Input
Amino acid sequence: MESIALEAQSERAIIVPEAGCQCLSYCVGTVEIIAGPANPNEWREHPHRGGIPLLFPWPGRIAGGSFSFGGRDYRVPINEPARGHALHGLACDRPFRVARRGPYFVTAVLDSAEHADLRAIWPWPFVLEIDYEVGFGLRLRARIKNSGTTKMPFGFGAHPYFHAPLALNGKRAAMLLQVAADRRWPLDARLIPVGEPIAVAGKYDLRTPKALNMEPYDDAFQMTQASGSDTPQARLIDPALKLGIEILADPAFEDFVVYAPPGNPIIAIEPYTCAPDAFNLSARGIRAGVRELEPGATFESGFEIRVGPA
Output
């Protein structure tokens, strides 16, 4: 698989279009920010366990791999057998084709019409176009077109994995996490939302920076409306380097998931345009961010990762 290096100033990102158009590495100077897989074979075995997996046409889980839309029932393949869910969509293990590229940018496309297996699984034809660009940050922008003849439900997200700590001599427990959310989705034991969002409290109140300590997270937050386009929705700070990672997302990204497994020096901070299991929540009358795209219409949105002094 071809790796495309994007470089600008002291930044370098590695994009692999054939590997779900993932960014498998992003360095600022000598500091590796993204925790990517060690090699392509590792990516094939676990396409959403490192790098920046792209989550479409749904992020997070669909409970039991089934949902209803427009008066019809649909089933999608279960790829999380331990919990019995369909996880993270259909894009992150599909090859994208490169549409344009330059020294600091690349655009790649996944057209469902070019993949017979996608047409069989997902009944709504689509074109997903992804832009990456580096220079004073890593920017990702998605354009989604409904190329079919009926209204399409969807959600989009990304799953950036960050090293925690960033410093070789740092400690995960000392890392500081901040998320601009005053509500979170209550989850059951299978990590499925069970109702309307509730107020954050205790370990879930991350509105000011909080040390990770030994806390695990696998939680979904409903974002507070940002006060401006330059306001980060989430921050991760390594005190050992006095370095901070900021995620700034368009308003369409109404939910963030934080994944920090115990005993693992990584943390994922995931911007979503909808909640986990959003299709089923919406069918129950709970506003969960499901988008409905008319035939021929296009949705566009993106986010940015910045690195600088804490």
Observations:
- The longest helix spans residues 40-45.
